[in-house]
Specification:
One of its GO terms (biological process) is proteolysis. By secondary structure, the chain is mainly α. 62% of the residues lie in helices and 4% in strands. The chain has 4 domains: 5-84 and 187-251, no CATH class; 87-185 and 271-357, Metalloproteases ("zincins"), catalytic domain (Zincin-like), CATH 3.30.2010; 373-382 and 399-530, no CATH class; 386-394 and 541-661 and 671-678, no CATH class.
């Protein structure tokens, strides 16, 4: 059974192979069924004159196999192409409307808060949020190719009937699907099974066309009887194809059931682990059982995405074809004392939830009391301050989160000035916030940077940057990267031209002071990586390196760069490097620390792109080595911890943020580590 994020990725890949195997089997059976229909039509056309030897004809079988394969492949490729945009395409397909933070209702604001907290706590980009406004049932889904293009959608009924703890449990369940790699498999299921459904649609079309043609030709003479017989054969062919197609749909539902059911138990358990509040998700499941509409989705496209929902979105003929486990069984795995009696949901429940929304969202169960920004800063420290760090725990936390991380994310978001957070949530302001994060404290350099921003910029851009800059400058160092994460959904709404203009300014802003701080590299790497994938929409990185051997030089370059950034001198850099090499599992003989001139940020960028194509076990070894190297002495700065998160993010391994120490030692002394390198690197 999968025990950590990396095991879950391997399981997800195995499920993909299983899906392809089921799909091939279904296609073979459909080919044989279509061949049987074609043969029956041949017999009907010849009025039974075809001999037994003609019942099996290899040439006819090859023709049928080719035709069916082309139709299914074309249908699958077409559907896959329409879903290339990722999660937003699925959300719109199901009637979702993007939530505008500036015009959000109290219930939608509560939803956005929960999603933002969960994203920052888990180290993933903040997903775009949609609401299925026409759906009165309780349901939700996460969709996308990867965390960078993920969306979360919830039904209006979820907002109306679930309190904050229950909604948080549902969102945590969906984040489990994001983190465990389930979303990509879900999209592949939709694409592949659409090709099978296309057979039924073709049969239905033939049946209607020939039926209409037959009705219009009834007045013709008996000379057309032979032609009518052929028409009837084609009509029957259409009926047969439709029947075969819906048999394919039956197989499709079985495939969805085989792939999906166990994942729901895992996501439920992960939601409890993330929130440490079993009553939340259990309460949501119980309300589904007590609500008249349950979790049923009325949208006509619900069947295509039924395997993606939090609860069963459509009804099934038998339990064997259900994409979700029985509701009572799911609840009892979380709450063993559940008696099977569901609560009665009435209009008063909607009123109570609405009143809670108007009063404002309560803090998380583990969140501290709201604190002023200065208080948070005092507990966290500056970017160069060192704090205790356990490399093994950091790598083990990849792909997970916890109640403490959610509470910390909540406190971070509360520490942001309200006006600054609101600005980051809309497209024009989000660009200004990112520019402000990159402004230098030196007045002369800042003036140069403002000139870069002003060049061919939209009117008012520099003024907006100057307005938010004092707010950004006053932020605690640990809140700066989450602020950029908060801006990602708004930046996704830019046009391609606007995004390219925004992107073209990032590197010049960083190079303006002839240095590149760890924060600047981290921000540029994480932000542009996810946005580039959104706007360019390239395919996810394939696994090209199942072993470490072809990546040894890349690993040495990464570890050398990290050692030189964190080491206080050459001897310490070599010692940090040696510990990283040992954690990687390489023999120390013949492995040397790379010269300083080879440890550039440009080279690190290219190296991380190659390492992203490694298998999950190799990625785990690389992250173990990087974490060990950065914290060879058991300490790490905030900037170094964020750099490690950027490396993990580059490998598609989301890492939660570094939690502040429970009891920092104010008397500990020692030089701070370097947090910048020359911009030429």
């Amino acid at each position: 059974m999968a025990t950590d994020f990396f095991d879950h990725q391997l399981v997800a890949r195995k499920r993909t192979s299983l899906l392809i195997g089921y799909f091939i089997l279904a296609v073979v059976l459909i080919i044989l069924a279509v061949y049987g229909v074609a043969t029956a039509c041949l017999i009907a056309t010849t009025q039974g004159q075809a001999g037994i030897s003609e019942l099996w004809d290899w040439e006819r079988l090859a023709l049928v196999a080719t035709g069916v394969s082309i139709v299914i492949l074309a249908g699958s490729l077409y559907k896959t192409a329409t879903l290339r945009e990722g999660g937003s395409a699925i959300a719109r397909l199901l009637g979702g409307e993007l939530v505008n933070p500036g015009a959000a209702t109290p219930a939608q604001r509560r939803l956005l808060n929960i999603v933002e907290e969960m994203a920052i706590a888990s180290g993933t980009p903040v997903p775009s949020v949609y609401v299925l406004k026409d759906e009165t049932s309780i349901n939700a889904f996460a969709a996308g190719h990867e965390p960078g293009d993920a969306v979360i959608a919830v039904s209006q009924g979820s907002l109306d009937h679930l309190n904050r703890d229950e909604l948080q449990g549902v969102i945590a369940h969906e984040f489990s699907h994001i983190l465990n790699g389930d979303m990509r498999l879900n999209l592949r299921l939709i694409g592949l099974l659409h090709g099978i459904l296309l057979i039924a649609l073709i049969g239905y079309t033939i049946m209607r066309v020939m039926g209409n043609s037959s009705s219009s030709s009834r007045s013709r003479s008996k000379d057309d009887e032979k032609g009518n017989g052929s028409a009837m054969a084609i009509f029957l062919m259409g009926v047969g194809l439709m029947a075969v197609g819906y048999v394919g749909v039956f197989f499709g539902r079985l495939i969805k059931s085989a792939i999906s059911r166990q994942r729901e138990f895992l996501a439920d358990a992960s939601a409890v682990q993330f929130t440490r509040n079993p009553d939340g998700i259990a309460g949501a499941l119980k309300k589904i059982g007590g609500l008249a509409s349950g979790s049923q989705i009325q949208n006509q496209n619900a069947e295509q995405a039924c395997h993606m929902f939090f609860g069963p979105g459509v009804s099934f003929w038998t339990e064997a074809m259900a994409t979700h486990p029985p509701l009572v069984e799911r609840i009892r795995r979380i709450d063993p004392n559940f008696d099977g009696v569901f609560p009665t949901i009435d209009a008063d429940e909607v009123v109570r939830v609405a009143q809670d929304d108007r009063r404002g969202p309560p803090l998380q169960r583990f969140a501290p009391e709201p604190a002023p920004r200065s208080s948070l800063a005092a507990s966290v420290g500056r970017a160069s301050e060192e704090v205790p760090f356990n490399p093994k725990q950091a790598v083990a936390s990849v792909g997970t989160t916890s109640g403490e991380h959610i509470a910390f994310a909540s406190a971070l978001l509360q520490s942001l000035p309200e006006d600054l957070a609101a600005t980051a949530r809309e497209p024009f302001g989000a660009r200004a916030v990112v520019y402000a994060l990159l402004l230098d404290h030196d007045p002369a350099i800042r003036e140069r940077q403002l000139g870069i921003v002003e060049d061919r910029a939209e009117p008012g851009t520099v003024q907006e940057v100057l307005r938010v800059a004092p707010l950004v400058d006053a932020l605690d160092d640990r809140a700066r990267l989450p602020l950029a994460d908060l801006a990602i959904p708004a930046l996704r709404q830019l046009s391609l031209r606007q995004y390219q203009s925004f992107r073209d300014r990032i590197d010049p802003l960083i190079r303006a002071d002839q240095k590149r701080s760890l924060f600047e590299f981290t921000l540029q790497r994480m932000l542009l990586r996810h946005l580039d994938r959104h706007f360019d929409q390239p395919p996810p990185n394939p696994v090209r390196f199942p072993t470490l051997r072809p990546l040894v030089n890349d690993c040495i370059r990464v570890l050398s760069t990290l050692s030189r950034l964190g080491g206080r001198n050459e001897a310490e850099a070599m010692a940090d490097f040696a510990q990283g090499v040992q954690a990687l599992g390489l023999p120390p003989e013949g492995v040397r620390l790379a010269p300083a001139e080879e440890c550039s940020m440009v080279a690190l960028d290219r190296t991380l792109d190659r390492l992203a194509m490694a298998s999950s076990p190799i990625k785990k070894r690389v992250l173990d080595a990087c974490a060990t190297c950065i914290a060879a002495d058991g300490l790490v700065t905030i900037a170094e911890a964020e750099l490690l998160r950027a490396i993990a993010d580059s490998l598609d391994c989301p890492m939660p943020p570094l939690l502040p120490p429970s009891s920092p030692d104010p008397n500990r002394e020692g030089p701070s580590r370097a947090t910048s390198i020359p911009a030429s690197n």
